[in-house]
Specification:
Order of helices and strands: HEEEHEHEE
Radius of gyration: 17 Å
Structural class: alpha+beta
Number of domains: 1
Helix content: 10-25%
Number of helices: 3
Largest sheet: 4 strands, mixed
CATH class: Alpha Beta
Shape: globular
């Protein structure tokens, strides 16, 4: 699945305008939907999820110059970093801080793999001690 397809799935299968905020949702993939339309909502009402999703409705994520990944499931970190970098670049940020935590460095390495591959990133390094140190990475975004 391409990055564009993953982002569309993550954003609920729709595109957004540049001035529209990024909204995170937990869409049902088209292959999981019996109707094949990719639209799992028939009445518009939130239903109780068997997995106990805490946010049945989309949650708006404000795009600022930093993002704290502690609030996201580890399996989603790569897609979130990619989407965040795109949104930050669209908003004209020159530098962003990605807070991944210190731990054993697993999330730090995942984040850096995505930073290396991102067309929006010019350079990155550990944040200075007063901005998170080893628990955060500063990325310098390309200016077009």
């Amino acid at each position: 699945m391409s990055l564009a397809q993953r982002l569309r799935a993550w954003l609920g299968g729709r595109t957004r305008r540049r001035d529209e905020p990024v909204v995170a949702s937990d869409p049902v993939p088209a292959e999981a939907d019996e109707s094949g339309t990719g639209d799992s909502s028939d009445s518009g009402e939130a239903e109780d999820d068997e997995e106990g999703e805490p946010f049945p409705e989309p949650v708006e994520i404000p795009i600022t110059d930093s993002i704290d990944l502690h609030y996201f499931p580890p399996k989603d970190v790569g897609e979130i970093v990619d989407a965040y970098l795109e949104a930050a670049a669209e908003r004209g940020f020159r530098e962003v801080r990605i807070i991944h935590g210190r731990g054993r460095g697993v999330q730090r390495n995942r984040v850096r793999i995505h930073l290396e591959r991102s067309p929006y990133v010019e350079a990155f390094d550990d944040a200075p001690g007063d901005r998170g140190g080893w628990g955060a990475t500063l990325a310098i975004l390309r200016v077009d």
